[in-house]
Design a protein that fits this description.
The chain is an alpha+beta fold and 353 residues long. It has 13 helices and five strands.
Length: 353
């Protein structure tokens, strides 16, 4: 999981924690009123204040919980969510034990804990809540007189606690797998849309976008840049002599060598590439273009195969002030280099027009 996704997940968990606290406080209030108006155990030696000690304790604990998430929102977040899940289940079972036949109204709450914690939080917390619900329910139906007397009803709910969450977990797991596959396909499609399939470098679509970005950067910060059109020399002869497989390998090798020198390199198609490079001084630009020529002509794996290229350079804004003009003039300079003997570079000059 990357850092951005992890941070978004923590924020989502924090939101769920706050919602859960307010729901828990509402549940405690309703349960306390329920116990107050229906408390048969008081006649058997219990006092109302004694019965309400656990709900009151959880009420105060939740107020403290609010304090913690306000001032320490991401401290031990996973652990406190887990503790809250166990307290939720424990408190609910306690209330169900106290109200006897009215416990049926709370049976669905336990089912929600098994499913809801998986929906709101992680798979691990979901399974822990699921196991705790089953254990708590088993203890309740074997100690509560009401549930012992209504054992068929109790085992019906037990079956629901076992089957429904498992079905839900399987459904969510399959859903997550489908989402993961869709995310992978989306990433793959996005990559293919912006990258050349053969060489893996950026394609014409990215080039047009970046060129406009460079122009806007000049308008904001006066950052000059050069556009270099690159055409491999005698590439058709390489294809004809060695075959298209070797030709494709040559294109891949050329792309790698260009990217080694200029990061912003794009393949326009065929044996045509383009590079964009910000610069301050003319000498700096000439050195970079010379390095491109030298790097491209390094020996290849096949000793009888040699790479070379003709490079045309146009500068923004001295040679052109629009994206259309700088592309046109870099292309003109490239043809001037090719006509001048190939394996060389040429800067745009007004004489070319």
């Amino acid at each position: 999981m990357d850092e951005i996704t992890h941070n978004l997940q923590e924020l989502e968990y924090l939101k769920n924690e706050k919602i859960q606290i307010f729901l828990r406080l509402l549940f405690i209030i309703i349960a306390s009123i329920n116990i107050y108006f229906y408390h048969p155990r008081i006649e058997n030696g219990y006092t109302f204040s004694t019965i309400l000690v656990p709900p009151l304790f959880v009420f105060v604990l939740n107020l403290f919980y609010l304090f913690v998430i306000k001032y320490f929102p991401f401290t031990k977040q996973h652990e406190r969510i887990l503790i809250a899940a166990l307290l939720d289940i424990g408190l609910t079972v306690y209330v169900m034990y106290m109200v006897d036949e009215l416990a049926a109204y709370y049976a669905g709450v336990l089912l929600w804990f098994s499913v809801g914690y998986g929906m709101r939080y992680s798979k691990q917390i979901a399974y822990i809540a699921y196991g705790t619900v089953l254990i708590s329910w088993a203890l309740l139906i074997t100690t509560s007189d009401f549930w012992i007397q209504n054992s068929s009803f109790a085992f019906g709910w037990l079956l629901a606690y076992i089957v429904i969450p498992l079905y839900y977990f399987k459904l969510v797991e399959r859903l997550h797998q489908n989402i993961k596959h869709l995310h992978h396909y989306a990433q793959d499609s996005s990559y293919k849309a912006y990258h050349d399939q053969l060489t893996g470098i950026a394609n014409r679509l990215v080039f047009e976008k970046d060129l406009n970005y460079y122009i806007q950067e000049y308008k904001k910060h006066k950052q000059k840049f050069a556009l270099m059109f690159i055409d491999l020399d005698a590439f058709k002869e390489i294809n004809d002599k060695h075959g298209h497989d070797i030709g494709d390998r040559v294109l891949v090798k050329a792309a790698q060598r260009l990217v080694d020198i200029v990061a912003h390199t794009y393949r326009l198609g065929g044996d045509e590439f383009v590079c964009m490079l910000p610069y301050e001084k003319e000498d700096e630009l000439k050195t970079k273009v010379t390095n491109l020529i030298r790097h491209l002509t390094l020996p290849c794996d096949k000793k009888n195969l040699h790479l070379s290229a003709s490079i045309g350079v146009a500068r923004f804004p001295s040679d052109a002030q629009t994206s259309f003009d700088i592309k046109k003039r870099a292309d003109m300079a490239m043809y001037a280099a090719k006509n001048g003997g190939k394996n060389r570079y040429a800067f745009y000059d007004t004489k070319l027009s």
